[in-house]
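Model it.
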Amino acid sequence: MIITNNKLVNYVKASYSEMRKVTWPTKETTIKLTWVVVLISLFVAAFLGSLDFGFSQVVKKIISTFN
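Modeled.
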């Protein structure tokens, strides 16, 4: 059953039309930006890991002073 005035059909048609207007990045750009994301993610993970380690050491020292 195909209904041309269906809102879903109109939505899919409009979405397809908009997707054809998109300027997609080149393969090289995609690879470069992927590396940027990976490197920033690793940096943030290392930074947060070091903060976590530092805070846990401080808490251990505080707890050990009360024992």
